[in-house]
Specification:
It is built from 25 helices and 21 strands. It is α/β, with parallel strands linked by helices. The chain has 5 domains: 163 residues, P-loop containing nucleotide triphosphate hydrolases (Rossmann fold); 101 residues, Recoverin, domain 1; 115 residues, Recoverin, domain 1 (Orthogonal Bundle), CATH 1.10.238; 176 residues, Rossmann fold, CATH 3.40.50.300; 51 residues. The strands form 6 sheets. It has a 6-stranded mixed β-sheet with strand order 2-3-1-4-5-6, with helices on both faces. β10 and β11 form a beta hairpin. α9 crosses α10, α14 crosses α15 and α24 packs antiparallel against α25. The radius of gyration is 36 Å and the shape is elongated.
């Protein structure tokens, strides 16, 4: 069934046989007194929002069969949000017409996928001394759109205001999305929503709501504390009515769902709807778009990262669902985390993260997953934080979970990156070891991990993310393979643009270095992107490269760090620290070159002879200047 959106103005229409008191009910509500001389039909009236319990403007429409055609009445039904069908309790024939004519007429003039809520109103109870409610249940069972039945009297003003209030409630807090009158229990959608809400409020993840958790729930949903005496009474009602509703003096999931069923059965739909809307649900019991997706703009040149608040929340979620406290999320625990979400959020991200030897997600791997999602798919990350209850637990929108970095141009100008997540593109010829170096970053042997490409049967590039330590600060490095079959094949802008580039060549292949040398000259020589050249397969015999410049000379010419030799058997992490440091401090490479030149100056000075005092003075000043610059930069690293 499809439910209409909650209107900003409630439109109520009164139907029924002539003489049942429709007009009298409207006039009694407005004037707060009974009028003997009643016109055939009351004019449409509007009740301001500030005088209604729900703070919503309300239009009330009267219908007169003597003055209006069935077609005109049908048009009014189409415009109405709720229908009140009035009958006279002292005239059985008016009640009979409710079932035989009015309810079918309303249904025929309502959308097929939406049944307008109906209130059955038994007027003139001042004329009898018994209730007729029991005679109406058969009608209500046949027509599920009947929200409730009310007995009232326009003459004595009994339940008149209550009648219109319940008509408002039927629109603003509809029963049918949350409760099945036929089955006398909550709908499956409502149960699913309440299950998610329970799991969010279960702060320690033990499957129970203790007094503290219930108090937090009460304050955040209703802005009022729950006195312990009232809480004890609530738990007593649950214990008396449903087995397993209370455990260790705490409310179970079963008890929580029963409690809301009881609210609805007692006509307190608004209580359950207040809770549902606090947790982002609309009238169709779907999470609203505005609740899931925070409006966050990421300007060109900027990236999105988790803020401290976002990291703290996700750490708490990890610890909550790590039931065995082994520092890992096994498959069952991970499934439980996302049991109230559409799916595991990173199901389509082809990135490997740190795990234990069994493939279970560590806290480091968990944070890497979320860090990567935030970088690549901010909107999806926003939605899943909402699913997990960030908005409720942090009492804030997801905006506070994220940090938008400054423009990279500013980082370049300041020679210092403000980011904590760096993207590194690993580029090299086929077979040079790109995949091996990516997996080595995670500390995993080459044969112990399947790539997503192999799992999917395609040739997707390997990619991974892990954290590294840069001058005492935790940073995240994202390694992504960029595969190019031939050096003549152009790299796309997205394959070049990164925070740091790692160009690989095979030290045992004499034609390997030429590939990355040409790549560097063509794409990186004139860019502001730091580059580290790495010779892989360092365990093999190093072969002279068939290129006009050997790797060491090439790096010196282009003022790059000397080639780093990588041996997968040693699995050293210093290369990854250097990559992250170069991304964090683009001047790191320049500082290293200055330091290297200083060493060359010292060697050159030895050729000048001991009597060449001007050489000594010049070299001394130059050396002091260079070392001073290096020290200043390194001090800046530490402060950062």
């Amino acid at each position: 069934m499809v439910f209409e959106s909650i209107p900003r103005t409630v439109r109520i229409i009164l139907l029924g046989e002539p003489g049942v008191g429709k007009t009298s009910l409207i006039l009694s509500l407005v004037t707060e007194e009974f009028t003997e001389h009643v016109p055939p039909k009351a004019e449409e009236i509007t009740i301001p929002a500030d005088v209604t319990p729900e703070q919503v403007p309300t239009n009330i429409v009267d219908v007169c069969l003597a003055e209006q055609t069935p077609e005109q009445v049908a048009e009014e039904i189409e415009k109405a949000h709720v229908v009140c069908i009035v009958f006279s309790v002292d005239k059985q024939e008016t009640l009979n017409k409710v079932a035989s004519y009015w309810l079918p007429f309303v249904r025929d003039n309502s959308p097929e996928d939406y049944r307008k809520p109906v209130i059955l109103v038994g007027n003139k109870i001042d004329l009898i001394d018994y209730s007729v409610i029991d005679n109406i249940w058969d009608i209500a069972e046949e027509y599920p759109e009947v929200d409730r039945c009310i007995e009232c009297s326009a003459k004595t003003l009994t339940n008149v205001s209550e009648m219109f209030y319940n008509a408002q409630k039927a629109v603003l807090h509809p029963i049918h999305p949350i409760y099945s009158i036929e089955e006398q229990e909550l709908t499956e959608r409502c149960k699913r929503a309440l299950t998610r809400i329970f799991k969010i409020c279960d702060l320690d993840g033990d499957g129970l709501l203790d007094d503290y958790e219930v108090t937090i729930f009460q304050k955040k949903c209703f802005d009022t504390p729950l006195h312990l005496q009232v809480l004890d009474e609530v738990k007593s009602v649950i214990a008396q009515n449903i087995a397993g509703g209370i455990e260790n003096d705490c409310i179970t999931m079963k008890g929580f769902i029963f409690l809301h069923c009881l609210f609805i059965q007692r006509g307190r739909n608004e209580t359950t709807w207040t809770v549902l809307r606090k947790f982002g649900y609309d009238e169709s019991l779907e999470l609203t778009h505005s609740y899931l997706y925070a409006t966050i703009r990421v300007p060109a040149g900027c990236t999105s990262e988790l803020s401290y608040k976002g990291q703290q929340f996700l750490t708490q979620i990890f610890e909550k669902y790590d039931r065995d406290k082994d520092g890992m999320l096994n498959p069952n625990e991970l499934k439980n985390v996302f049991s109230c979400c559409p799916r595991i959020p990173w199901h389509n991200l082809r990135y490997t993260v740190p795990t234990n030897e069994k493939g279970f997600l560590t806290l480091q791997g968990w944070m890497c997953r979320w860090t990567l999602m935030t970088l690549l798919d901010l909107q999806n990350t926003s939605a899943y934080l909402a699913y997990l209850g960030f908005n409720f637990l942090e009492n804030d929108t997801q905006k506070s979970a994220f940090h938008i970095t400054r423009d990279k141009k500013i980082d370049i100008a300041k020679k210092q990156s403000s980011r904590t997540v760096y993207q590194c593109h690993v580029i090299g010829p086929r077979g040079c070891g790109k995949t091996s170096i990516c997996r080595s970053f995670l500390g995993i042997a080459h044969k112990k991990i399947k790539s997503h490409a192999h799992e999917r049967g395609d040739s997707a590039d390997e990619a991974c993310i892990s954290s590294v330590n840069v001058y005492g600060q935790e940073r995240y490095l994202v390694l992504r393979e960029v595969g190019v079959a031939r050096v003549s094949d152009p790299l796309q802008p997205a394959e070049v643009n990164c925070d740091v580039a790692c160009l690989l060549y095979d030290v045992a292949n004499p034609r390997s270095f030429e590939y990355i040398a040409r790549i560097y000259i063509k794409y990186f020589a004139e860019s502001h992107i730091p580059v580290l050249i790495v010779g892989t397969k360092g365990e093999a015999l190093i072969t002279r490269q068939e290129y006009i410049l050997q790797p060491e000379v090439f790096c010196s010419k282009y003022q790059l760090l000397p080639p780093q030799i990588f041996n997968i058997r040693e699995n050293k992490q210093d290369i990854f620290v250097k990559l992250a440091t170069m991304a964090a401090f683009p001047q790191f490479q320049a500082a290293w070159i200055l330091f290297s030149k200083h060493r060359h100056l010292k060697q050159f000075a030895s050729f000048a002879g001991e009597n060449s005092s001007w050489w000594k003075a010049g070299i001394g000043v130059a050396a002091a200047t260079i070392m001073g610059l290096v020290l200043i930069k390194m001090l800046n690293f530490q402060k950062w």
